[in-house]
């Protein structure tokens, strides 16, 4: 059995529990949580004395990131008591590569699942191609092949499920939904010349099959992982770095338009089937008509699935996005771009988590820490 999840053991946080990381944060304006890492002295390479609670430049104590946990818990609990089938509260955690997204997302998931009073069933999903969620939770998720598996540790009591999406399998699933519209395969099934179907504009769809847009595999895999969403009260999504995530989040709208065009060809293809019926025997023509109907039904089901995911992403009452960053020029610049892009896509950003912050009374090498902290505060101010 895997060990107790060590969600906080990743990248500069030290071996603490997920709850520790959540408590060791403070919030400003847009709910910007400042998290103090276990830093090292640059001269003596020893662990510095960093206070558990970080503060802003004004040294005013601020609410902790636990407010987000309480909010998720409250939303999830209300859906449990409501008569309808409300989807689970979902939080996407994203940002620049290497800023601690997996640490934050796994800490949130572990904290939510560790409260026996709330008794919430939590799913954490990683869509990052360079998966490290299994390392953060100290469990092998690669063998799950994209299927959620339960954590068996005593801390979460079987309430935490985790998975790393399998992009390869997801891409095959996507292709299986569209392969019936491959020009050559459809022409063979209908017994017509491929050139006839090319006149309908089907050739362009072959390009999507052979060269799918970046992020499509992660999107389909995420949708598959969330198929059994009724089992979960809260879902935490550990996303890929900024650019990859933005492409993934923009795809549902693209696919809706793209698949809509393909479905609009139903009338033309049905007309072709009727024409064939006059040439061939009725049984053979009927079989070929069923080929078109079956392919369309499969495609429409996939379109509905992607549309549901898009609706979920933009549902501010159930879904939010937490941006994770570090207080540097590059980290803040990329985070601001991410927040702007997300707003343009209708995705609500509720929290900004700033990792690797130096506390206002950090010990050792005082001059170094004072300069570093002053620099960090300048960039944190740009996030407000």
TrEMBL record:
Domain of life: Eukaryota
Cited CDD domains: ArsA
Renumbered residue ranges of the record's region Disordered: 38-62
Membrane-crossing residue ranges in chain numbering: none
Occurrences of domain ArsA/GET3 Anion-transporting ATPase-like (ranges): 89-382
Gene3D superfamilies in the record: P-loop containing nucleotide triphosphate hydrolases
InterPro entries: ArsA/GET3_ATPase-like (IPR025723), ATPase_ArsA/GET3 (IPR016300), P-loop_NTPase (IPR027417)
Pfam families: ArsA_ATPase
Protein name: ArsA/GET3 Anion-transporting ATPase-like domain-containing protein
Naturally occurring in which organism (per UniProt): Trieres chinensis (Marine centric diatom)
């Amino acid at each position: 059995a895997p060990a107790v999840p060590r969600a906080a053991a990743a990248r500069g946080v030290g071996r603490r529990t997920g709850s520790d990381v959540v408590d060791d944060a403070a919030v400003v304006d847009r709910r910007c949580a400042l998290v103090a890492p276990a830093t090292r002295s640059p001269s003596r390479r020893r662990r510095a004395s960093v206070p558990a609670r970080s503060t802003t430049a004004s040294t005013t104590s601020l609410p902790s990131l636990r407010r987000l946990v309480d909010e998720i818990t409250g939303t999830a609990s209300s859906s449990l008591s409501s008569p309808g089938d409300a989807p689970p509260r979902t939080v996407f955690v994203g940002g620049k590569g290497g800023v601690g997204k997996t640490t934050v997302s796994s800490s949130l998931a572990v904290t939510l699942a560790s409260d026996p009073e709330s008794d919430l069933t939590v799913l954490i999903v990683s869509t990052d191609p360079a998966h490290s969620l299994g390392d953060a939770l100290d469990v092998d998720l690669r063998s799950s092949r994209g299927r959620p598996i339960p954590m068996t540790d005593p801390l979460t009591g079987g309430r935490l499920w985790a998975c790393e999406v399998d992009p390869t399998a997801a891409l095959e699933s996507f292709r299986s939904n569209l392969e019936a519209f491959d020009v050559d395969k459809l022409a063979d099934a209908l017994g017509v010349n491929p050139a006839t179907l090319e006149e309908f504009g089907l050739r362009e769809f072959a390009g999507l099959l052979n060269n799918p847009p970046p992020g499509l595999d992660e999107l389909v895999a995420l949708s598959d992982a969330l198929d059994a969403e009724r089992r979960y009260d809260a879902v935490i999504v550990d996303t890929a770095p900024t650019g990859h995530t933005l492409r993934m989040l923009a795809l549902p709208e693209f696919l809706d338009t793209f698949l809509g065009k393909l479905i609009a060809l139903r009338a033309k293809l049905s007309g072709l089937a009727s024409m064939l019926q006059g040439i061939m025997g009725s049984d053979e023509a009927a079989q070929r008509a069923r080929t078109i109907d079956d392919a369309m039904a499969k495609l429409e089901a996939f379109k509905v699935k992607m549309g549901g995911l898009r609706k979920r992403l933009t549902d501010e009452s159930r879904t939010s996005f937490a941006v994770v960053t570090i207080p540097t020029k590059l980290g803040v610049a990329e985070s601001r771009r991410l927040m702007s892009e997300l707003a343009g896509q209708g995705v609500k950003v509720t929290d900004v988590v700033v990792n690797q912050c130096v506390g206002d009374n950090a010990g050792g090498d005082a001059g170094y820490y004072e300069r570093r902290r002053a620099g960090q505060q300048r960039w944190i101010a740009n996030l407000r």
